[in-house]
Amino acid sequence: RKEVEQDPGPFNVPEGATVAFNCTYSNSASQSFFWYRQDCRKEPKLLMSVYSSGNEDGRFTAQLNRASQYISLLIRDSKLSDSATYLCVVKGGDTGGFKTIFGAGTRLFVKA
Amino acid sequence: EAGVAQSPRYKIIEKRQSVAFWCNPISGHATLYWYQQILGQGPKLLIQFQNNGVVDDSQLPKDRFSAERLKGVDSTLKIQPAKLEDSAVYLCASSSRKGEYEQFFGPGTRLTVL
């Protein structure tokens, strides 16, 4: 089993749709969680951190479920510019809390 | 504020040759990361430095890969000798703290091994 797993997609949705991505992780001692966005042939960029209480940033909502060991990302009112690969990132769980693991990413295509 | 700089942007070599990549992190960032991203996959952490010390190199193929961060600023990643499966984008990132803080990525070096 991979340490961080994501549905690779692709998700093809029309503009204005709501889309949700899930990510599961295997190490229950993991400490920090993030969603990064990566455009084609570009570097990853932080989209948002994920907190235990859940957090929202405009059209984006992230949630963490420690009991079930998954995190989620919800995008409402999708825009064409949301087309990208969304990477789930899990940090910590090792002695020093250093370990960083990226998921393989979920591809999203938003169509006009 | 200047971002993470990497060079070269592209490199094509033949198998068994050597190659080196350079990274200059954001000024003041103590933590520096090197990742390997193979097409269609997420970035895989190769090595993480805290200042000039290594804190995680568990996924670095040490028989052929080496990295250093002299004086806790710039870093170089070397592959010697290269294999076909080393073809990937090598990403450098930096952050101001070890754990929870945002990682800022450079544009990457796209390596092709023929």
In short:
The complex is a heterodimer of chains A (112) and B (114). Chain A is mostly beta strands.
Task: Describe the overall structure.
The complex is a heterodimer of chains A (112) and B (114). Chain A is mainly beta and 112 residues long. Helix content of chain A is 0%, strand content 53%. In chain A, strands 2, 4, 5, 9, 10 and 11 form a six-stranded mixed beta sheet that branches. In chain A, strands 1-3-8-7-6 form a five-stranded antiparallel beta sheet, with no helix packed on it. The relative contact order of chain A is 0.34. Chain B is mainly beta. In chain B, 0% of the residues lie in helices and 48% in strands. In chain B, strands 2, 4, 5, 6, 9, 10 and 11 form a seven-stranded mixed beta sheet that branches. Chain B has a four-stranded antiparallel beta sheet with strand order 1-3-8-7, with no helix packed on it. Chain B is globular and about 35 Å long. The chains are: A mainly beta (112), B mainly beta (114). Chains A and B meet through β5 and β10 of A and β5 of B.
The assembly state of the depicted protein chains is: heterodimer
What series of H and E elements makes up the topology of chain B? EEEEEEEEEEE
For the sheet with most strands of chain B, the description reads:
7 strands, mixed
- Helix content estimate of chain B: under 10%
Q: Largest interface, by Cβ-Cβ below 8 angstroms: which chains and how many residues each? A: A-B, 24 and 23 residues
Integer-rounded radius of gyration of chain A: 14 Å
Q: Report the uncertain regions of chain A.
A: none
Number of extended strands of chain B? 11
> How many helices of chain A does DSSP assign?
0
How many beta-strand runs of chain A? 11
**Range of strand content of chain B:** over 45%
Q: Report the end-to-end length of chain A measured between terminal Cα atoms.
A: 37 Å
- The assigned structural class of chain A equals mainly beta
SSE string of chain A, helices as H and strands as E: EEEEEEEEEEE
Gyration radius over CA of chain B:
13 Å
- The average pLDDT score of chain A comes to 93
Secondary structure tally, helices of chain B: 0
The whole-number mean of residue pLDDT values of chain B reads: 93
